[in-house]
Design a protein that fits this description.
The radius of gyration is 23 Å and the shape is rod-shaped. The protein is mostly helical. The N and C termini lie far apart (about 80 Å). It contains 2 helices and no strands. Helix content is about 85%, strand content about 0%.
Length: about 55
């Protein structure tokens, strides 16, 4: 039983996939945040152009 637990704790085959998933999630959060900021500024620009016309 002890060998089975040690083998389970030392298993690292899925570790790389989890790390890539976390990196991808972080990148997605940054992109979503940037799109919100740029989107709000773009909306403001279009509204000012519309009111000028």
């Amino acid at each position: 039983m002890k060998n089975l637990v040690n083998a389970f704790l030392n298993e690292e085959s899925g570790q790389g996939l989890v790390e890539y998933g976390l990196i991808l999630a972080l990148i997605a959060l940054v992109v979503i945040g940037m799109l919100r900021i740029v989107g709000n500024k773009l909306t403001s620009t279009f509204n000012s152009v519309q009111s000028s016309l």
